Hints:
Elements: E1 12-21, E2 24-34, E3 39-43, H1 50-58, E4 65-70, H2 80-84, E5 86-89, H3 101-109, H4 118-124, H5 140-152, E6 158-162, H6 170-185, E7 189-193, H7 197-203, E8 206-211, E9 214-220, E10 233-237, E11 244-248, H8 252-263, E12 267-272, H9 276-292
Parallel strand pairs: 3-7, 3-8, 5-6, 6-7
Antiparallel strand pairs: 1-2, 1-4, 8-9, 10-11, 10-12
The structure holds adenosine-5'-triphosphate (ATP).
Protein name: ABC-2 type transport system ATP-binding protein
Domain ABC transporter: 12-237
Organism: Herbiconiux ginsengi
Amino acid sequence: MTSSHRGSGPAVTVDGLRKSYGSxxxxxxxxFEIARGETFxxxxxxxxxxxxTVEILEGxxxxxxxxxxxxxADPRHATLEWKAxxxxxxxxxxxxxxxxVREQLTHFAGLYPHPRDVDEVIAAVGLExxxxxxxxxxxxxxxxxxxxxxxxxxxxxxxxxxEPTTGFDPEARRQFWELIRTLSREGTTIVLTTHYLDxxxxxxxxxxxxxxxxxxxxxxxxxxGSAEARVPLVRWRETESSAVREQRTLEPARFVxxxxxEHGEPAELEVIRPSLEDIYLELVGAAxxxxxx
Length: 293
Ligand SMILES: Nc1ncnc2c1ncn2[C@@H]1O[C@H](COP(=O)(O)OP(=O)(O)OP(=O)(O)O)[C@@H](O)[C@H]1O
């Protein structure tokens, strides 16, 4: 770890961020902080302003207003030293070079002061069998793994992942999650945008939900949404009538104990907590209804 680089204070601070394209406002005054070592998800429907926000943080896009600090610097004035501390997996890169996986990674490793071991990274993204294959001959999902490998080869302090697992098969996604957990344990700060809500729930400490360029909720992933939206549901099949019954309750254990006392063991019993996807859909639906009104 390159602890000499590490400063104090948040990894990312965003305040009143705005971005307009002509008369269209894509990001409309959003603010949040990301602590060092945190994994933070940016969620929101297509066109919400996630990529715009992330690209401003990466120094790839000019903002129209607001304050931004990333690893203690304004990305507008990015230096090479600052860039070396950041890893980026863009939404669409699709590396398609004529070089092999190993050659490409070795080349990029040489550009950083403290790179990861090339073999270790190839194994972490599951490309051991393809390391001598030219990138243009890989499948789409395999190329995406090369993108991820290139994002982490420089041992970044802060890693941006914009829809990193699009096109991954289920096994590759699980493998990728393990890689992210390892990076997180090593202290890497991670900013993740994804439409896979299970991925966000698995990996993130906190999440922000953006819709129409505005921040509609932010917090630990298990505390997003209204208290009412998070009430668990008990579902079971009634022995007498064979009907499926449901009850929402804040005390599922007590409720089930009552059921058992009265009717014996309930058939097909489930206690279901609303998933991040359920909560997210409610939040975005409410924001869209408000915007339409
Ligand atoms: N260069 C541009 N010129 C004009 N409008 C743009 C430009 N880039 C983005 N936009 C618009 O800004 C809005 C936000 O786009 P952005 O790419 O940030 O959304 P997103 O949340 O990342 O969406 P997705 O989930 O589809 O990736 C969209 O309405 C988009 O059409």
